From TrEMBL, chain A:
InterPro entries: G-protein_beta_1-5, WD40/YVTN_repeat-like_dom_sf, WD40_G-protein_beta-like, WD40_PAC1, WD40_repeat_CS, WD40_repeat_dom_sf, WD40_rpt. Belongs to the WD repeat G protein beta family. This is Guanine nucleotide-binding protein G(I)/G(S)/G(T) subunit beta-3-like. WD repeats lie at residues 51-92, 137-177, 178-219, 220-261, 306-338. Pfam families: WD40_Gbeta. Gene3D superfamilies: YVTN repeat-like/Quinoprotein amine dehydrogenase (2.130.10.10). One of its GO terms (biological process) is signal transduction. It comes from Carassius auratus. The gene is LOC113062023. Keywords: Repeat, Transducer, WD repeat.
From TrEMBL, chain B:
PANTHER family: LP21163P, REGULATOR OF G-PROTEIN SIGNALING 11. Residues 430-468 are annotated as: Disordered. This is Regulator of G-protein signaling 11. The gene is rgs11. It comes from Carassius auratus (Goldfish). Coiled coil: none annotated. Residues 32-107 form the DEP domain. The lineage of its organism: Eukaryota, Metazoa, Chordata, Craniata, Vertebrata.
Amino acid sequence: MGEMEQMKKEAEALKTQIEAARKAVHDTDMASAAAGVAPAPQVQLKTRKTLKGHLAKIYAMHWSTDNRLMVSASQDGKLLIWDSHSGNKVNAVPLKSSWVMTCAYAPSGNLVASGGLDNMCTVYNLKTPVIKTVKELDAHTGYLSCARFLSDTEILTASGDTTCALWDLETGKQKTVFLNHVGDCMCLSLSPDMNSFVSGACDSLAKLWDVRDGQCKQTFQGHTSDINAISFIPSGNAIITGSDDCTCKMYDIRADQEVICYQDAALNSGVTSLALSTSGRLIFAGYDDFNCNIWDSLKGEKVGVLSGHDNRVSCTGVPEDGMCVCTGSWDSFLKIWN
Amino acid sequence: MTINTLSQDGVQRQQMPCLTKMERMIISMQDPDMGIKLRNQRLLITVIPHAMTGVDIVEWLIKKFSISDEEALHVGQLFIKYGYIYPLKEPRNLILKADDSSYRFQTPYYWMSTRWPASELDYAIYLAKKNIRKQGELIEYEKECYNALHKRINHTWDFVVMQAREQLRASKQRRKADRIVLECQEQAYWLVNRPPPGTQDSIDHGPERRTMNTRVQLNAEFYKKEIEHNRISLARNRVKSSICLESYVKYCEQYQPHDPIMQGCLPSNPWITDDIMFWNMTSETVALPTKLRVERWSFCFMELLNDPMGRKEFLTYLEKEFSAENLCFWQACEDVRHGETAKIPEKVDEVYKQFLAPGASRWVNIDSKTMEKTLEGLKRPHRFVLDDAQMHIYFLMKKDSYPRYLKSELYKNLLARAIVPQETKKSVFPFMRRQRHSSPSPALATQTAEDDGKAKNSNSNSGTASRL
């Protein structure tokens, strides 16, 4: 046991040195850097559409790249494809397992994916006359918490078995497995250039991975509880994380550390989801207390609230053209705001 | 999910929604009509009022929520772990038994949400009372705590003993049944908030979850990898925060006009006015693009490349300069990276023939080192084999062709011809309705003063602001 204790100590010592190196480059904070910027106006977004159709809690939603279609997953065992502008349900995909936790829309618009407690990621083709299951990706030993398409041939998944995986959709096999987390992986976000992605887990760490070589490039710490939501900022130079410790944090990738924490003493519930506006200025964070708070990412202040749901806000999403925000909730409704 | 987390600034943050839910259930369990039927319980020779059996609890939960035995037992167990219900016979054993063992509801005073600060002083008084009441009543770990506290807060020990004596004297005045109930309640509280060492502190750990050890072994192998990872991490180059943050601020400011939620959009936001003209005007195949769209191409090279129309324009420009093969090569590499795996070898071969082979029809200019590496990799083609070459050409275009394109007549003409959409009026009914907008940004009003250069844009924008 002595040897392992030694190694543990060495790992810890290196960590302390890393912290020191990080501190050394931390020559200013966001408050000073953004001092010259005018504060964001108090944002009052109204509900423009309420999408009704699910019969149980909505767990996930994802916009299509055409900015009008979106997919939502609910524990009533259905994936619904909405033309959100007209409010019409374009398609309904019945799921084999109703315990769904995530859904994703492929950038091409041809495929959608879902997954959850069945430990599998199921991919469906929307363009065939009848929606068909293209593949069932079955290799994870834990629940599927998040999935994102890179293209029609590759998909990334995050799982409760503490791993993330890159799959080849033609063979249905895992191409790369990303191992490093010691807690359930809860969320992932692709970088704009698609060469890397970040994952957040129950070990309260966010990790940056290289898609090509499967290595964990960077680890970001600071949260004191599970990280439930994560997203790259539009420029790809930083990430925002939301956690059960009731705070959101921004970590800069080049500075390799936390640069600002979005917290409020009055906020006592965990963050379940987050999304960013096109410029990255506004952060829409869904909380357990049924609200979605809007943060000014530069000033670190709350500038608005989206309240209207009768239960926990489980997912948020901003389409590519940044025209609106969509929130999905355990009250079975999706609301579009701007 | 953890109930109690100590954040970096030392603030205790308790997950109130979870406790609120538990307490709502506890209250409905105690409802005189629909709740659990309480009865008197005999504890040795004393009668304890308002007690229930384990079976009562489980059955009530099953009936109320239509759940299975297993789930009811699990939920009931949570109430005991968090101190809302406590066992009478074996108080130290905080488990729910689905038999006729007796349980009682904890008084709200001791509920976790009441946040009665369980301070060292209070714990000391409690232990002192136990000690005085009956010598040897304290068990092992309590004795240790008692001694530790005695050392730590020795200066107030007189106060502790005095308080303990006083509380004991006051309790003697009460009826025996009441006294026993109060003692049970207090004991139950401390058992939850100061659990014996070795047992999991439910407050700090939250609901039980499968521990890491079942999935990730914290063994020597793990630590070896950690050390390696940390070493590489230590050696990484870190950029100063000031530079990173400055670039972030700049990005936000540059993109603010392109952020519809912050600054509205022209002709109108389809979500507000139900008019889809915006989407029509910004579609891929439109004849004339909008000004905002063309301006965005000047922000960075990727913006130009990400827009299919931008790519087309850029290609036209490059053709004039006889360097169109660069963009074509870049696009072909993208196709390899994101396309079907099965087609990769044939695609890579095509690329080689067209762009890389000596004497190729559209030969691209790559430095010899990269060319050598790429040709070596082509022997075993994979998705990323062309990455280095693609990167080289990308930077070539970015540093050379792209800046010149932005200065070119082609681009400037397009920018001049680009449309600034007129704001649409929404008329819902025969009579004119006032236009609805998302709250206009006061920043717009101030921006008109600054942005006199963008005369057309700002006029329309300030129109938006003033209309409300």
